[in-house]
């Protein structure tokens, strides 16, 4: 039996992970599950999987969690420190599926225990790539990417030499506003931005898909995880979301990863790696699909993509600034405080304000320096939004 923990268990990735675990319960000994506001789901899963401990991020809801777990034998805990403590419990495999920068600390703690980290929380690599890769190396821990594009790249690189890689192409569906005019995008509401044409995901990443901030995070994630130059990373709009990524080699070959838009593929790949096991995902009928389309993204409509390359040029803590400013701008958009296109304006302004002091390339990076930068960027984003409003 493999010991596993799932952080962000109540979210979209967490629930897909639990779906796979529950199909084969005898293979897994579940140690910790974490969630946020959905106490009922967290408790139900903790009971069903017979977890040792269930942790909610919300300290105010500890009593409620305790009450619903009464008699189950599952320990209840709450708060960010309790999540980190749960992440320190020894396991073989950890799913990191908290959304946002809050996912960084528990992932680092899990790596320090030498656990294999299935990393859905792309914000970890964006805010602290050097730190998280360094921690994995120091503790001989493995990181397996769970973002669909990065799982696809990882699979395309099996048995290959990075020196032979010329370019890495990640695809983007184009999100909810793929075919909208700029004028319409400027007036878009959170409700309109919260539905995705192909994928069923959490609300925040769905809105980030419409703005391509998600793809911008993924460009940074690609650079940090695979260690390529940022000039080697390309983004292609691919409305069908069936080709997730392509790796281009020095002999002109392109290795494409093709699969249904179902996160259980990338999660299952990371769960079973280095083996491949049968997964309950749709088998594609390419003859029925007929055609796949690709086009270049319009950088005017998607300034986030340009900003991603600027972040990688800047280096240092630019990723932490970018992510934190993006998270606050997204909060502002969801609260109807700023418009859809203003999210990129806010992020760009925060980068301009903070990069002179926070983007030294050889600056030391620790969890503290990252969280300080994150905090400052959030505060600065709030000030920028106040001026805009
Ligand atoms: P979600 O919103 O559905 O779930 C987020 C989870 O994190 C929930 O369990 C929630 O309770 C928890 N959480 C939220 N704020 C927290 C905090 N401050 N502290 C602790 N826990 C907190 O999100 P999701 O779509 O499952 O995405 C999770 C991560 O995976 C994100 O980083 C996202 O970018 C990445 N990802 C998701 C998908 C997808 O298909 N959903 C695909 C690729 C990558
Ligand atoms: Mg992705």
UniProtKB/TrEMBL annotation:
Pathway stated in the Swiss-Prot or TrEMBL entry: Isoprenoid biosynthesis; isopentenyl diphosphate biosynthesis via DXP pathway; isopentenyl diphosphate from 1-deoxy-D-xylulose 5-phosphate: step 1/6
Entry keyword annotation includes Disulfide bond: no
Keyword Metal-binding: yes
Positions contributing to Mn(2+) binding: 147, 149, 218
Every DXP reductoisomerase C-terminal domain range: 259-379
EC number: 1.1.1.267
Cofactor: Mg(2+); Mn(2+)
Identification of the protein by name: 1-deoxy-D-xylulose 5-phosphate reductoisomerase
């Amino acid at each position: 039996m493999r010991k596993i923990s799932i952080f962000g268990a109540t979210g979209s990735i967490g629930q897909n992970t639990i779906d796979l675990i529950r199909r084969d319960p005898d293979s897994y000994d579940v140690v910790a599950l974490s969630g946020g506001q959905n106490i009922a789901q967290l408790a139900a899963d903790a009971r069903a999987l017979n977890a040792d401990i269930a942790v909610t991020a919300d300290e105010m809801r500890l009593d409620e969690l305790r009450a619903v777990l009464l008699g189950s034998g599952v320990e209840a805990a709450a708060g960010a420190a309790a999540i980190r403590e749960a992440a320190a419990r020894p396991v073989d495999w950890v799913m990191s599926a908290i959304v946002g920068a809050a996912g960084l600390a528990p992932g680092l703690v899990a790596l320090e225990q030498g656990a294999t980290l299935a990393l859905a929380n792309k914000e970890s690599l964006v805010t602290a790539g050097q730190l998280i890769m360094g921690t994995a190396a120091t503790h001989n821990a493995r990181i397996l990417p769970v973002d669909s594009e990065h799982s696809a790249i990882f699979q395309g690189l099996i048995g290959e030499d990075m020196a032979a890689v010329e370019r890495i192409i990640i695809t983007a569906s184009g999100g909810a506003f793929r075919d909208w005019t700029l004028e319409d995008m400027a007036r878009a509401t959170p409700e309109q931005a919260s539905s995705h044409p192909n994928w069923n995901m959490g609300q925040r990443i769905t809105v980030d898909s419409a703005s391509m901030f998600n793809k911008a995070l993924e460009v940074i994630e690609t650079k940090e995880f695979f260690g390529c130059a940022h000039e080697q990373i390309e983004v292609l709009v691919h409305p069908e979301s069936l080709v997730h990524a392509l790796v281009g080699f020095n002999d002109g070959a392109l290795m494409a990863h093709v699969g249904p838009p179902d996160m259980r593929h990338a999660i299952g790949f990371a769960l079973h790696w280095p083996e491949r096991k049968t997964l309950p995902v749709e088998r594609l009928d390419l003859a029925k699909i007929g055609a796949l389309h690709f086009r270049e993204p319009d950088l005017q409509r998607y300034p986030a993509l340009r900003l991603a390359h600027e972040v990688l040029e800047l280096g240092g803590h630019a990723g932490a600034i970018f992510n934190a400013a993006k998270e606050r701008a997204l909060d502002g958009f969801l609260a109807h405080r700023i418009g859809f296109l203003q999210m990129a304006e806010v992020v760009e302004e925060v980068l301009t304000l903070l990069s002179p002091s926070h983007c030294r390339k050889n600056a030391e990076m620790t969890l503290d320096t990252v969280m300080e930068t994150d905090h400052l960027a959030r505060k600065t984003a709030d000030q920028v939004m106040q001026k805009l409003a």
